Amino acid sequence: MTESPTSPIDRLNAIMARLRDPVGGCPWDVEQTFQTIAPYTLEEAYEVADAIERGDWDELRSELGDLLFQVVFHARMAEEQGLFGFDDVANAIADKLERRHPHVFGDEAAKPDSAAQKARWEDIKAAERKGKDQHGVLDDVPVGLPALARAAKLTKRAARVGFDWPSTDEVFDKFVEEVAELRAEIAAGDLDKAREEIGDLLFVMANLARKLGVEPEDALRRTNAKFVRRFAFIEAELAKDGRTPEQSDLAEMDGLWNAAKMAEHPR
């Protein structure tokens, strides 16, 4: 009989190996690939963010486990193909953290504040990109990021080399310009160009969020949650009369929406 794994991560890796075993494993797990698992990896990351947003720490523990399982899953598939294993993944991030914190693990003096230290971090990352033969400023901004998050990261990276508006005033001017262009394309009935202008408008908003130090994905997540919460208030109020939103009208629902706002932020 083989000895039982001695640590939780060893146990998890052993479970993953068993699930992927072509003989006696789980047929679903066995047939998965990097491509088929990737969407689940993204989903689990979002569920981690959702648990944090709701302040549900028991759920966060569970969701972090689900996310860790995704890492183990990918590492196991890579090991089966002779690419790398879980220990290589762990060592890679450990090496990176030590390399990017020379003020902690090396002999470099710490910067005076977190902003200066973050700038030093970015310098180290830039040097790493050159070592990977990624010479373009935007070369390694992941294409798979959510579009708003990627827009903010693209503008942040461009800003590091001086391609940025001096203040938020210019961003607001650009926003007004893009709104006018969108209105013109809608009036012209050109859906393709209107779609492009909507993209431009969203990009400007992501840039504004970046300049204000706001994560656009987080901001939109909060607004989504607020919309769901307030619409639920509308449904609950209508239900008191035995009605549904379909049995109401815009004027009444708009009034209830404002009541929901007042309930959240009483003056």
Automatic annotation (TrEMBL):
PANTHER family: NUCLEOSIDE TRIPHOSPHATE PYROPHOSPHOHYDROLASE
Family designation: Belongs to the nucleoside triphosphate pyrophosphohydrolase family.
Leading EC class: hydrolase
A single GO molecular function term of this UniProt record: ATP diphosphatase activity
Record GO biological process: dATP catabolic process; dGTP catabolic process; dTTP catabolic process; dUTP catabolic process; response to stress; TTP catabolic process; UTP catabolic process
Record's catalysed reaction(s): ATP + H2O = AMP + diphosphate + H(+)
Highest taxon above the source species: Bacteria
Residue stretches making up the NTP pyrophosphohydrolase MazG-like domain: 32-105, 175-230
Gene3D superfamilies referenced in this protein's UniProt entry, alphabetically: MazG-like (1.10.287.1080)
Lineage start: Bacteria, Pseudomonadati, Pseudomonadota, Alphaproteobacteria, Caulobacterales
Protein name: Nucleoside triphosphate pyrophosphohydrolase
E.C. code: 3.6.1.8
InterPro entries given in the database record: MazG-like_dom, NTP-PPase_MazG-like_C, NTP-PPase_MazG-like_N, NTP_PyrPHydrolase_MazG
